[in-house]
Structures are given as structure tokens and as C-alpha cells.
Amino acid sequence: NNGCILHYVDNNKTHIGDSNLILMDLGAEYHGYTADVTRTIPANGKFTAEQKLIYDLVYKAQEAGIAAYKIGTKMSEPNAIARKIINKGLADLGIIASEKDRHNYFPHGTSHHIGLDVHDPGNYNKFEEHMVVTMEPGIYIPEGSPCDEKWWGIGIRIEDDILITKNGPVNLSAMAPRTSEAIEAAMKLPSVLDNFKLPKLD
């Protein structure tokens, strides 16, 4: 349920829980330039049926939004595209009554500049060549939401950094697994932490 809180700060849990999701929003830096990438993974390596449906809906919205990252396109266009897809998907799943319903399950925009800062200032009118802009749709269904309880506690965001070029958008963070299938496959791989032993603490 913490993943349903944007920019969750307090982190004192000692146990994640087998069927929970982990939402990781990472602002890595390299030679003074920033990235802003978010992935959401299942703690036990496999999405539940409900988690996968919401994840795949967010992915579909992100892919459609990225396709609009072209020189001269209004920067508000990917957000509008993502919202239309997510609203229809939520209605199809019965989470909202109609795709025209107002709701709080997607409470933020999809795009901001990155560069020397993780939220860099810049032109928010139209895409220009060489801009690097995030694309980050999300769906957050906190406990107590007015929908079936099976959806409660699902918080999913997928965020990538998109370079605007004359030849179309380039996803600079595409090597981090993005589809639900790729994430589940990656979770099956051995980890350097599998044999990591912490020292005994007094």
C-alpha cells in the first residue's frame, strides 16, 4: 500500500510480504547528469492476476505515450494519450463505472524534463530535438478505494527517460526490463545477493 503514496519517504518495514509489489523510483546520476527511472516488481517474482492486469495497462499507456515523443508534438499529448488508455482500461476492469468518470487512481502528469536535475526546468510547450523527458504513467489503488477489494494496495508506475530525435523517440532506459513478462524472467535469474551473508550484529 506504500506504493500508492507518491514519493513515499518513511521506510521502516522489515518484511515486504510475499504478494506485495516493490515500486522503485531511481534518480541515478552520471557525470553530473541525472536519470529518473521507475520500475515496479513483484516481491516474490510473480505478479498476481490483478497486479499483472494493472501493470500491463500502465505499460500499454506508456508505450502509446512514448510514440508521441516527436519534434513539434505538444508536450501535453502523451499525458492525454496515457489517460485515455488508462481510463478505458479501468472501466473495462470495473474499477471505475465509466471511462469518463473522474478518479484519483492516476493523480500525476507523465512528463518532465531531466538533465542537470531530476526535475529540470525547460519548455513545456512542444517537444524539441535533443530534449530528454520522462514518460511515467501510473495507477495507484489504495486500501479503502471505491472498487472491489481485490484491487486494493496495487500501486504501479513505469518511468523511462526519452530522448527526442529527428528519427523519433529513443528510450534511454529501455535495457531495464519493462514488460511484466521480462520482469518475471529477470526475477528468476540468480542474484549476487543470494549467497550474501550479513555479519552477526551484537
Short description:
This protein has 202 residues and is α+β, with helices and mostly antiparallel strands. The chain has helices spanning 49-66, 77-92, 180-187; strands at residues 21-26, 29-30, 33-34, 37-42, 132-135, 138-141, 154-157, 160-165, 168-171.
General description of the model:
By secondary structure, this protein is α+β, with helices and mostly antiparallel strands. It has a domain at 72-186: Creatinase/methionine aminopeptidase superfamily (Creatine Amidinohydrolase, Alpha-Beta Complex), CATH 3.90.230.10. The chain has helices at residues 49-66, 77-92, 180-187, and strands at residues 21-26, 29-30, 33-34, 37-42, 132-135, 138-141, 154-157, 160-165, 168-171. The strands form four sheets. It has a three-stranded antiparallel β-sheet. Strands 1-4 form a two-stranded antiparallel ribbon. Helix 1 (49-66) runs antiparallel to helix 2 (77-92). The two termini are 33 Å apart. The mean pLDDT is 94.
